[in-house]
Amino acid sequence: MYEYLFQKLKSSPFRSKFKLSSEDLIYIQKKGIDVIRQHARDFVRTRLAPAFPSNDGKQTPMRGHPIFKAQHATACCCRGCLYKWHQIPQGRSLSTQEQDYIVDILMQWLELQTKQLSAPQKQNSSSVF
């Protein structure tokens, strides 16, 4: 669905270095994809949606949750990156549609990463999606 965006992100040395770890995959499987999606919604709503997020540019940790990695990998980590990569203007609150768009991108990145991590073990495990 976002093939062009993901191709563009792959060309960025910074964005392309983010990958899920096996621990992240276990966390996703343990919590379930619906819970992870809710975490994504909550992080986007509280950390990105305000017109002037607290600590903007530094509000998304580099690790600690699979969604944080997804945010950096997809340039959905701060309002500056959202503007640069997704043309979502700064200085105003994000609409519900914009928040849904961001969550969709994060979840698709997680799905792609999960498939890549699971590929060698395909016969032994199933995808979380």
Write a short abstract of this structure.
With 129 residues, the chain is mostly helical. It has seven helices and no strands.
Polypeptide structure, described:
The protein is mainly α and 129 residues long. It is built from seven helices and no strands. Helix 4 crosses helix 7. The radius of gyration is 14 Å and the shape is globular. The two termini are 15 Å apart. The model has no long low-confidence stretch (mean pLDDT 91).
List keywords for this structure.
single chain; about 130 residues; mainly alpha; 7 helices
Mean pLDDT: 91
Helix content: 55-70%
By helix and strand content, what is the structural category?
mainly alpha
Low-confidence stretches: none
How many strand elements?
Answer: 0
Strand content: under 5%
The helix/strand order is: HHHHHHH
* Rg, Å, rounded: 14 Å
Q: The biggest beta sheet, please? A: none
Q: What order do the helices and strands come in, and which of them pair?
A:
Elements: H1 3-10, H2 13-16, H3 22-31, H4 33-48, H5 66-73, H6 79-86, H7 96-118
Helix pairs in contact: 4-7, 5-7
